[in-house]
Design goal:
Helix 1 crosses helix 4, helix 2 runs antiparallel to helix 3 and helix 4 packs across helix 6. The longest helix is centred in the middle third of the chain and has 19 residues. This protein has a single domain, classed as HAD superfamily/HAD-like (Rossmann fold, 3-Layer(aba) Sandwich). It is built from nine helices and seven strands, in the order E-H-H-H-H-H-E-H-E-E-H-E-H-E-H-E. Helices cover 51% and strands 18% of the residues.
């Protein structure tokens, strides 16, 4: 048995699922019209002006989620996935997941997206395990802080722990990702499949002989 690890955004799904969910909430008037300016500004700063992934998460959390109720957000998650998930899925990557599942391998999703979004996607895809960014909440279920950001080195740590728990050699880890931010995870894997990789990851793939789809 091998351990197949899939990133979510731009890997299992096309584009950024959290960003798509934001616009779904915006269309439902959950957020104000002014929030569009902030969402686009943060994305551009991350994409072109070196705002780190951790910095992006902090700004998005402070602007859109801090003080909000998890219960309110969850009201929209299933509606969003019912309407959008099938169209969001990347059929090529999904075919790898389906084949691995049929062959009895352990399937895991590791994503920096919030757990309230990743969990139901993982359940719908019937994967074996998942980990995602976790937000702390107060006694009223209002978001208070980012408890755990699942990215970079954290993914590598989680993968090693999961492989050990399953008695799987790390050489039997197969990683699917699009981003250079997952390089620490890719470095420990026996096989790497880059899904429409960003420029930096593509360069490393060519040097290391990693598969590109």
């Amino acid at each position: 048995m091998s351990l197949y690890i899939f990133d979510l955004d731009k890997t299992l799904i096309k584009g950024n699922g959290s960003f798509k969910f934001y616009f779904y909430l915006y269309s439902a008037r959950f957020f104000s019209p002014f929030s569009v300016f902030y969402s686009i500004s943060y994305y551009l700063r991350h994409r072109f002006f070196r705002l780190s992934l951790a910095g992006l998460h902090q700004k998005v959390f402070k602007t859109f989620l801090e003080g909000r109720s998890l219960i309110e957000v969850l009201r929209y998650v299933d509606l969003f996935l019912d309407q959008k998930l099938d169209k969001m899925l990347n059929p090529k990557t999904l075919s790898y997941l389906t084949s691995a599942k049929e062959n009895g391998h352990h399937i895991s999703i590791l994503s920096s997206s919030p757990s309230f979004l990743v969990k139901p996607i993982a359940e719908r895809l019937k994967v074996d395990s998942w980990r995602a960014t976790e937000y702390g909440r107060d006694s009223s279920s209002n978001f208070t802080k980012i408890d755990l950001l699942v990215e970079g080195e954290e993914k590598a740590v989680i993968a090693k722990e999961l492989a050990k728990k399953l008695s799987i050699d790390i050489k039997e880890i197969v990683v699917f990702t699009d981003s250079i931010s997952d390089l620490p995870l890719a470095r420990i894997a026996g096989r790497v499949v880059a899904v429409r990789p960003d420029r930096k990851l593509r360069s490393i793939c060519r040097r290391e002989g990693w598969e590109i789809i």
